[in-house]
Amino acid sequence: MDAVMCGSDAAMQRDWRWTQPLLAVVVGLSFFLLFPPVGLDSRYSLLELSLVILTAVLVIFVCSRTTIRTVAVPTALAVLLVLMCFSAAWSFASWETARDALTFVVLAVVAFFIVHSARLNTILIGVAAGGLLALAGSLVLIAVAPEQAFYHTGAVQGFYGNRNGFGYVILMALPAAMAVRLAFRAGLLVKTVLVLVLAAGVVASDSKTSIFAMLLVVLVWVAAVLVRRHWGYLAALALGVIVVVAFAAVNYTRVLELLGKDPTLNGRSEIWSAVLSVVPHSLVIGFGWSRSWPAGSPHSAAVVEALGGHAVFHAHNEMLNWLVTLGGVGLLVVVALYVFVLWSGARIFRTATVEGGVWVLLASVMLIGRGFTDISETAPQGWFMLMLVAFVAAKYWSDSSTKPASGIVLLRWPQRRHAPRRGVAKEMIVSE
After folding, report:
1. Are the beta carbons of 20 and 120 closer than 8 angstroms?
2. Whole-structure pTM value
3. Geometric angle at alpha carbon 280, from 276 and 286, rounded to 5°
4. Distance between CA atoms of 116 and 432, rounded to whole angstroms?
5. Helices 120-144 and 163-179 meet at what angle, rounded to 10?
6. Residue 410: which H helix or E strand, with range?
7. Predicted confidence pLDDT, tens digits, the chain (432 residues)
8. Measured CA angle at 28 (ends 26, 29), to 5 deg
């Protein structure tokens, strides 16, 4: 009997070893293709792509003979997906809402199976590789056709058509590069170079939103490292941040000039004001969710009028985006999801039992931080990242606690009724 069990374990280990590189490739290509460069734009629909990715992940999952002992889904995410789908019933563009909601549901399912099939480090390698692919392709375009690779201000836009898009893609990969572990000689050096190259790419984009989010990620990473040494270092850092913020508030106009922004934040305040003016018309459930605002919808029409005929396709603020599309109910659910991933990220980092676990915290900060003045998870690539973060957080939520999570926080099947034996959580993580 023992011999049979040993043989079965050995077979599972072999399956595990060959599936990890394949999953890294799938994650990397998914990351890259979900925000396609100009040359691939409109060549495929996002729904088609998401279904292809799901098929590939399921094939790997079945062939690897992976078993999922516990299904864990953040409650806020489950509610949010239901709201997105049901909002087609009252949406201004019902077909568009149904299509986009289905696409995002499929991407959520993809993320779930990836998280339960791959090591966290495998996911990080895939995301970092996808960002490196985007950067390398853009560098090739700079060498071949520099007139297409640069924005008119001299900022790098690569093969994404605009500098904000380029900065967004490179930024998405940065937290993964910061958290990944490269287990070979000179791995730390390679990781350091990768982080510096991606950070340089974000700076080269001259996207103020992405640069701000990157600085926020670095600040949180420094704070996380310092707090492990001594709380006093964190207090000193917090004091420094307060001083800088106070100085910026006092010299607000001067700071905007240095950032190349006008008092309206390059029109963002006008967009926000116009959006807020129509929110009361459907305050509770919104006007129906979609990736981009349908032309002629109340929120789109209000912004077009405010901007003198110029159309935009999102609120340039994720909170307002969720508020206008899913109302106050949707906004509360999204905030609950934000709190879940941030708090989970802090818990996972504090326990220090999950290799690369700091990524959950850093990626959450990056996504939420960028959403202050632009879209983040509304874009398919950002949504894919948020889904990976959310399911990683759900998977490891209870590892540092003997008490099962409340159903208000996490939906689990089957429910764990007894505290795990000492060492069980550690064994689960190591067995990855």
Report:
1. no
2. 0.89
3. 90
4. 10
5. 140
6. strand 410-413
7. 444 334 444 444 555 578 899 999 999 999 999 999 988 877 889 999 999 999 999 999 998 888 888 888 999 999 999 999 999 999 999 999 999 999 999 999 999 999 999 999 999 999 999 999 999 999 999 999 999 999 888 899 999 989 999 999 999 999 999 999 998 889 999 999 999 999 999 999 999 999 999 999 999 998 888 887 767 766 776 777 777 777 766 666 776 666 666 665 666 888 899 999 999 999 999 999 999 998 888 999 988 888 888 888 888 999 999 999 999 999 999 999 999 999 999 888 888 778 889 999 999 999 999 999 898 999 999 999 999 999 999 998 755 455 666 778 888 887 554 444 343 343 333 333
8. 65
Of 164, 256, 253, residue with least CA distance to 206: 164
**Whole-number Cα distances in Å, 115 to 27, 101, 123, 124, 181:** 10, 21, 8, 11, 17
b/e sequence 187-222, b meaning 16+ C-beta within 10 Å: eeeebeebbebbbebbbbbbbbbbbbbbebbbebbe
Give me the residues paired with residue 411 across strands: 73
Kindly list the distances between the CA atom of residue 413 and the CA atoms of 2, 66, 245, 417, 426, in Å, as whole numbers in the listed order: 30, 17, 45, 11, 21
Q: Beta strands 410-413 and 71-74: pairing type?
A: antiparallel
Q: In this structure, which amino acid lies at residue 359?
A: W
> DSSP label at 405?
P
Beta partners for residue 184, in sequence order: none
What are the structure tokens assigned to 155, written together? 């900022």
Q: Which of 365, 367, 348 is CA-nearest to residue 357? A: 348
Q: Which residue has the tokens 């209870």?
A: 398
Q: How far apart are the first and last CA of the chain?
A: 24
The type of residue at 133 is L
Written as six digits, the tokens of 26 are 């799938």
Is residue 74 reached through a cis peptide bond, with omega within 30 degrees of 0 on the bond before it? no
CA distance 107 to 33: 13
Residue 254 tokens read as 């001067």
Residues 6 or more apart in contact with residue 373 via CB below 8 angstroms: 208, 209, 212, 265, 268, 316, 317
